[in-house]
Design goal:
The protein is α+β, with helices and mostly antiparallel strands. It has 7 helices and 11 strands. Helix 3 crosses helix 4.
């Protein structure tokens, strides 16, 4: 089993029950509506939790390239979204019953899991706040502010993947980015194939939408 701090937190007996799962790019890991039978951990590649909006845009609820996937499925009767491999991926699958039993029996593991879920809640709050914004420009600015450093973000994924995470079509994302650059609100520098986006005028006070912080 590969070295990872989250895996090290698992009880030895649970780690011993893991099986390796390989998923090719585009392959479905699990489908919405299916009953969860395993808890997944992404070792390599990338797996996304995806829903389709009423407008037909793909919305990415989680991107996992190293870590647990769909933690909420541990206490769910059915999956609420599809899990799709965005690249050739390698995962570990733990029997969900054994995972639950380990949480009940091992206090250290339970404390680790609670702390991890708390971090995920923070990420999801930010994402929910962003998706509640109506304007594409507002979503882009929110993302850069929330995920970047003082209004500066090195984009580590393709623009198409980023559009899905923002709940936008890639055509809308491209047009909005171009408009932000023309208006002087955004600068983009290509650095070794990874664009660096910098907000040149942050308009946080002008943003409208419900705040889920706190």
């Amino acid at each position: 089993m590969k070295d990872h701090p989250d895996l090290a937190a698992l009880p030895a007996r649970l780690r011993g029950q893991a099986v390796e799962v390989v998923a090719a790019a585009g392959e479905i890991v699990f489908r919405r509506g299916a009953r969860p039978a395993r808890m997944f951990f992404v070792l390599e590649g990338e797996v996304r939790l995806v829903r389709i909006s009423t407008s037909g845009a793909e919305i990415v609820l989680q991107r996992a390239s190293s870590g647990f996937l769909a933690e909420a499925s541990l206490e769910s009767a059915r999956y609420h979204c599809d899990a799709i491999a965005a690249a050739d991926s390698c995962l570990l699958a733990f029997p969900i019953g054994a995972f639950r039993d380990a949480l009940r029996r091992d206090e250290a593991f339970r404390s680790f899991w609670i702390a991890r879920l708390a971090r995920e809640v923070h990420v999801l709050r930010s994402q929910c706040e962003r998706l509640a914004l109506r304007g594409a420009a507002e979503r882009i600015e929110h993302y850069i502010e929330a995920q970047g450093d003082h209004g500066r973000l090195e984009l580590s994924r393709s623009r198409k993947a980023w559009a899905a995470e923002l709940g936008l079509t890639h055509e809308v994302l491209y047009r909005t980015l171009a408009g932000l650059r023309r208006s002087g609100r955004l600068s983009v520098i290509e650095d070794g194939g990874r664009p660096i986006l910098t907000l040149t005028r942050i308009k946080s006070a002008a943003r409208k939408g419900p705040s889920l912080k706190g």
